[in-house]
Amino acid sequence: NRDSISVSKENGGNIMAAIINKDECVGCGLCVDVCPNQAIKLVDGVAIVDPDVCIDCGACVGECPNGAITM
């Protein structure tokens, strides 16, 4: 889907996937602030998850006011 940015990785046999809908992301930065590992950055006004740093905790999902992040 060209309207989403998808990131996935293999982690101990489990697949972690964070999907950020760039059309729903308003670049507020709340997900950046709540991420315990600083795995999320804003790039050109859109949240981007670094799969090598993300610990798959889901904190960003609950913090996004637009529901733009899913796991």
Describe this protein's structure.
By secondary structure, this protein is mainly beta. Helix content is 14%, strand content 37%. It contains 2 helices and 5 strands; from the N terminus they run ββαββαβ. The strands form 2 sheets. Strands 1-2-5 form a 3-stranded antiparallel sheet. Strand 3 and strand 4 form a beta hairpin. About 13% of the residues have low confidence.
Characterize the largest beta sheet: strand count, sense, and whether it forms a barrel.
3 strands, antiparallel
Distance between the termini: 16 Å
Q: Strand share of the residues?
A: 35-45%
Low-pLDDT runs: 6-14
Mean pLDDT across all residues, rounded? 82
- Secondary-structure-based class equals mainly beta
Radius of gyration: 11 Å
Task: Figure out the total of helices.
Answer: 2
What is the spatial order of strands in the main beta sheet? 1-2-5
Series of secondary-structure elements, N-terminal to C-terminal: EEHEEHE
| Percentage of residues assigned to helices | 10-25%
Shape: globular
Oligomer description:
single chain
Number of strands: 5
